Amino acid sequence: MSLDIHQIALHQLIKRDEQTLELVLRESLLPETAAVSEMMAELHRVYSAKNKAYGLFNDDSELAEALKHHRQGQDDFLAFSRAATGRLRDELAKYPFAEGGIVLFAHYRYLAVEYLLVAVLSSQQSMRVNDELDISATQYLDLHHADIVARIDLTEWETLPTSTRYLTFLRGRVGRKVADFFMDFLGASVGLDTKAQNKGLLQAVEDYCAESGADKQERQQYRQQVYSYCNEQLQAGEEIALAELSSELAPLGEKSLEAFTRDQGYALEEHFPADRSTLRQLTKFAGSGGGLTLNFDALLLGERIFWDPATDTLTIKGTPPNLRDQLQRRTSGK
Description:
Distance between the termini: 57 Å
Number of domains: 3
Radius of gyration: 25 Å
Order of helices and strands: EEHEHHEEEEEHEHEHHEHHEHEEEEH
Strand order of the largest sheet: 2-1-4-5-8-9-3-10
Shape: globular
Largest sheet: 8 strands, antiparallel
């Protein structure tokens, strides 16, 4: 992995009681050891694999202003991180769910891009066995379940200030409240809406197929081709490129898919990340509620599965063998 660490600072927030969140600041940067490099590589890998939301700094962001001063050489990285951790403590203390943790600021380069990653990491207790086979307690940083994390693409922020996606963050496993306090600390707003971009692409594909007059089989083949390209991009960690996608598809009429989306004003970005759950709708129907969960290939609609909108009834012809076996055993009383 081509990850080069420039500077890392660690600080700590300790919750003493319901009203007190103590601040513990390091007096020096974290030295770059083999353990530090391994930790940073793992944190980068874990974060990159997660679904992220995109954002940008507000005009009045204190963090952005402090980061600019640091980048211009007015403050060193340690001073920047210490002041920012103080602001984080003040912001976090406003919320009743406030917990402590290790606050990490990491400036690093991956491939040709510079990043600043900010995270609040929790410590977990586990057991270890030493060389003498004695068991003792140990503390470790829970990198895999980190959900208070944001990363700023410094390269894009400084070279393309109009971008709406140079900042990424995790929404958090415990609800919007976590993202709220962290976004307030960052002084940032949600930018590029990945899910909306993917939904826009799906709608454009449906409208494009409808306008072309393609029959049911042609439409489904086209959806499958779109899905195959998008899924390959997702698996490779690459974004959907609208022009590239369009070039790989045979036009359904006089216009290409790209020209159609442009002329019809779908407001799709030239490049945007793939959203797995949205893209599945190209090839599958899925839903749950009221104790019922259904998931089936779109090809089956009208072939083995029929929907009557008047009565909101699904008719399934030919149940899966394992389901049929369960039904037979239950209805026979065995």
